[in-house]
Design brief:
Blueprint lengths: L2 E3 L4 E3 L2 E8 L3 H11 L6 E2 L2 E5 L3 H6 L3 E2 L2 H11 L21
Parallel strand pairs: 1-6
Antiparallel strand pairs: 1-3, 2-3, 3-5, 4-5
C-alpha cells in the first residue's frame, strides 16, 4: 500500500491543507484515511484534505511526501482524477447501470 501526500500549502478556512491520494484505488485511500482517523467528510472527489497539523501523522503512517504536481500526475496516471464539475457517474471507475 502506497499513499502520497503533498506539502500543506493549500489555504482554506484559516488553515493550510495537504492532499492525500492513492495511485491504486479509492478503497486503498479510504482504508488508509480510516486507519489515521480521518473523517470520510474530508474526502473530496479524488483525495482527502488533511490539515497541516495531521501531515506528520500521515507521513509516519507511511504516506510518501511528493510535490503537488506529482499528486496530480499520480491521479491522472492511475485514472483516478476527478475534476470539479464531473458527476460521480461520469467519473473514472464509476459503475454504470444497465437499462
Amino acid at each position: 500500500m502506497t499513499l502520497y501526500i503533498d506539502p500543506p500549502t493549500w489555504p482554506g478556512h484559516g488553515r493550510l491543507w495537504s492532499h492525500l491520494v492513492s495511485d491504486v484505488s479509492y478503497a486503498e485511500l479510504h482504508a488508509f484515511a480510516e486507519a489515521l482517523g480521518v473523517p470520510r467528510r474530508a474526502f473530496e472527489r479524488d483525495h482527502y484534505d488533511l490539515p497541516a497539523h495531521r501531515y506528520a501523522d500521515a507521513v509516519s503512517a507511511g504516506a510518501l511526501e511528493v510535490s503537488s504536481r506529482e499528486v496530480v500526475r499520480l491521479l491522472h496516471g492511475a485514472g483516478l482524477r476527478r475534476r470539479k464539475g464531473i458527476s460521480r457517474s461520469a467519473a473514472p471507475g464509476a459503475q454504470r447501470r444497465s437499462s
